[in-house]
């Protein structure tokens, strides 16, 4: 089959690799129908995620069709259309039993496109299938559904819920990429007083306004002043970091009010400075987190009920084989206006199991 292979920092290629096969009784092999690219994949390519070694197939988000299931898989069978979650879960370890699937110690967590081969491929093996894929209701389009593999649960759990957004709050979202935009949509569910989006790219600020931001500011144009002006100098109740660079995190800690919350979502490859000389007396709470995806069933229900505008984040569609072009468009988002790029599409119904090695 073909897959997008990481070949070391700065290098990727869509190339031939061996077909995946069921290895454990809990595994499924899935034909990838629709797949997307995450800001985290860009961090991997930059070399920010050193556990990803050359030869790894990237990608941790997809919708596909089960072609083969191990003997122990109970909840899906060949032919089922499923959402592949970015987080896999053994279901047995202490963290899984608490719903903290992202921290799974039994071989799950963020493994796809990280420590095992991922979804940017024609086929993918998914471990612990019963807890790691979600059958999709017929009413959910695959292109809309794929955005629930990562960005919506991440923005909701690690941004909105960790940030404790409440009615009336002033919420600042730093970084208006797909994750930040999904955080704006998620925060909007709690009737905040106002949402302020901050980004370097005007195209992304425009997207933020169209998805519910009440005000926007360029990251280079003193956004803290706008926040002060809108909050009588207090600062924001909740600041969500959705970038993953030290400057953005440090900006968040300057914009939060005393007693407020900073929810970090960004994947960081470099240390950020925590200015305790300013912050020690401000009673602030800082949270970090890898998404757990415990909210995915709820979000799927909202999508099926047409209560989640996920398709508004999709700006570009490609064929699966145009992976390198899609990466190019996604990584130059400030020029291309890309938000979420999706590849693939509904396929013929005939299910062809990959050849055994
Ligand atoms: N914690 C998790 O579980 C989790 C899951 C998925 C993604 N992430 C991370 O979330 C972050 C956002 O993901 P994405 O897909 O939206 O990425 P993205 O790269 O598409 O978006 C990042 C945005 O930040 C903007 N930006 C860059 N520097 C900035 C600065 N100094 N100030 C303000 N804005 C700035 C960019 O213009 C861009 O619009 C990434 O770091 C990604 O790795 C974390
Ligand atoms: Zn991701
Ligand atoms: Zn586990």
From TrEMBL:
Name of the protein in question: Alcohol dehydrogenase
Keyword set includes Zinc: yes
Nucleus among keywords: no
Family note: Belongs to the zinc-containing alcohol dehydrogenase family.
Required cofactor names: Zn(2+)
Gene Ontology molecular function, alphabetical: oxidoreductase activity; zinc ion binding
Superkingdom to which the source organism belongs: Bacteria
PANTHER family: NADP-DEPENDENT ISOPROPANOL DEHYDROGENASE, ZINC-TYPE ALCOHOL DEHYDROGENASE-LIKE
SUPFAM superfamilies tied to this protein: GroES-like, NAD(P)-binding Rossmann-fold domains
Keywords noted in UniProt: Metal-binding, Oxidoreductase, Zinc
Gene3D superfamilies from the UniProt entry: Medium-chain alcohol dehydrogenases, catalytic domain, NAD(P)-binding Rossmann-like Domain
InterPro entries on file: ADH-like_C, ADH-like_N, ADH_Zn_CS, ER, GroES-like_sf, NAD(P)-bd_dom_sf
Ranges of residues in domain Enoyl reductase (ER): 8-343
